[in-house]
Amino acid sequence: MSRREAGPASDGARGGRPGVAVDAVDLGRTYDLGGTSVAALRGVSLTIAAGDYVAIVGPSGSGKSTLMHLLGGLDRPTGGRLAIGGRDVATLDAGELAKLRNETIGFVFQSFHLLPRTSAVDNVALPLVYRGIGGRRRRTMAAAMLGRVGLGHRLDHRPNQLSGGEQQRVAIARALVTDPVVLLADEPTGNLDSVTGESVLSLLEDLNASSGVALVLVTHDREVAARARRQVVMRDGVVVVPPADDPGTPTVVPAARRGPEIVDPAPSAEPRRASGSDSGHPFGGSGGATGATERRGDTPAAGDRCERCGGSTGTGPGSGS
Ligand SMILES: Nc1ncnc2c1ncn2[C@@H]1O[C@H](COP(=O)(O)OP(=O)(O)OP(=O)(O)O)[C@@H](O)[C@H]1O
Ligand SMILES: [Mg+2]
Predict the structure, then answer these.
(1) Region entry Disordered: which residue ranges (predicted)?
(2) What is the domain range of residue 33?
(3) pTM to 2 decimals?
(4) How many domains does the chain have?
């Protein structure tokens, strides 16, 4: 599927500085836990260029997932400046941010986050609901994307009828069906055996090479990280080794923190996320702002729940026309 087919015209980055997809300057994220505050990010600057391939590494709790959620507009920084597709997220309301996310970002998570009672093709079609694309066309686009990830023969399988690697490929197809500028993958191979993980990683790399989608990958695996064109090493909420050729990353590297990369062998599965975030559904909706769209329920199965938006995705009659 071409970018033109999926949505807005693309220059490879869609607005802002030419060739720059996401621009983060001195980003901070502090969680307020009723009296105590947790500084998960303490001034991170990073530029993701169109077509980039960046690995983010660092020990458990260093802020990798927090950063990914900010870069993808799933959460908002409490400090610094963040531009996605050239638009300063501070100037956007929840609905505008959700729309920008749907047009620009694809997410892949360690634990897939597929709707359990919904077929592969309808899981992949879900982000297209928020684009207002009709049911038949959604299905055609989703089926084509599943074909690209090698699952053209599994369209009507539900997640529990698929292997782990197949489920992750469905999740990748869902992330890419909107033709995003940036694909954010948070430990996408973390729940997969090494052979399956390798095939998922190769798929992501092929898509990066063939479609030009920028790939930002969180991993605890040194060998995986070494395959990226650039590595960002995080520790304690700061970037300790910025990518050498990142024009947006200041070279403020605390001397005491400089050192060999630490790879935590037992990372947590998924981060906890801030309550009260207004960012809503990772695949395009903004919770309340697009509730009417979600309630149409013409993609997810009846009563299926979306783990990422915390609510029922619909009670409608399965896939649309
Ligand atoms: N919603 C939250 N409320 C409070 N603290 C949080 C929340 N989410 C994350 N944190 C804290 O922020 C820090 C960074 O968390 P984050 O999930 O970004 O780490 P990570 O680098 O992704 O770790 P892992 O490799 O284990 O996934 C941690 O200390 C974590 O406890
Ligand atoms: Mg994490």
Answers:
(1) 244-321
(2) 16-110+180-195+210-298
(3) 0.79
(4) 1
